[in-house]
Amino acid sequence: MSQENLIKFRCTVCKRANYFSQKNKKTVEKKIELKKYCNWCKKHTPHKEAKKLTE
């Protein structure tokens, strides 16, 4: 994965970063929110895009 497009997803319940993905920043302007499984909460919770990975 390209480092400049890499984003991390943070659980909204326990605030841990569980998933990494990439997005096209030219076409998608707002933050992404997905419902993913959290290993620490042991259930499906909303995961929001966190701050940039590298800066």
Kindly provide the name of the CATH class. Mainly Beta
Gross morphology: elongated
Succession of helices and strands = EEEE
The strand line-up of the biggest sheet is 2-1-4-3
CATH superfamily (homologous) name: Ribosomal protein L33
Largest sheet features = 4 strands, antiparallel
How many whole angstroms does the radius of gyration measure? 11 Å
The CATH architecture: Single Sheet
How do the strands and helices of this protein lay out in sequence?
Elements: E1 6-11, E2 17-22, E3 33-38, E4 43-49
Structural account:
This protein is mainly β and 55 residues long. The protein has one domain: Ribosomal protein L33 (Rubrerythrin, domain 2, Single Sheet), CATH 2.20.28. It has no helices and four strands. Strand 3 (33-38) and strand 4 form a beta hairpin.
Task: Briefly summarize what is shown.
By secondary structure, this protein is mostly beta strands. It has a single domain, classed as Single Sheet (Rubrerythrin, domain 2). The chain contains no helices and four strands.
Descriptive terms for the model:
mainly beta, Rubrerythrin, domain 2, 4-stranded antiparallel beta sheet, 0% helix
